[in-house]
Amino acid sequence: MVDCVFCRIVKKEIPSTVVYEDDDIIAFNDINPVAPVHILIVPKTHLKNLSDVSEEHAPLLGKMLLVASKLAEEKGISEKGFRTVINNGPEGGQIVMHLHMHLIGGKQLGHKMG
Ligand code: AMP
Ligand code: ZN
Asked: Which residues lie across from 31 on neighbouring strands?
């Protein structure tokens, strides 16, 4: 999608600090981190959010979680713990309308979820 910031990152039109990439997924550091580790795990195909996925995307969604687990291990936060978050739509706090998963860790996170 032309005006989508994450599609532009996928196409390398906008720079990012890439920490993982394969044919389906790119992961890069969040530009405004809320914790020492704050990575965005992004499917290369443009999907708006979880309201835009169907059965065919099940392997992709599974892969996003596997990449999160792998990156948590690599970043040394697997043992102590971390959080994965997918914001969906305006009331879910989604700002960038291209499906992405936040991987956050490296400090004690609060219990508040809403
Ligand atoms: P969300 O509220 O789930 O849509 O989160 C969007 C996230 O994307 C925010 O944490 C932003 O800091 C992050 N973000 C926006 N633009 C960029 C960018 N160009 N590079 C890296 N992260 C970005
Ligand atoms: Zn996009």
From this structure: none
Domains of the chain: 5-105 (3.30.428.10)
Nearest CA to ligand 1 atom 17: 31
Predicted TM-score (pTM) of this structure: 0.98
Q: What is the pLDDT of residues 41-81, one digit of tens each?
A: 999 999 999 999 999 999 999 999 999 999 999 999 999 99
Catalytic residue among 38, 46, 57, 100: 100
The CB of 96 under 6 Å from ligand 1? The reply is yes
- Residue 106: name the closest of 90, 85, 83 by CA: 83
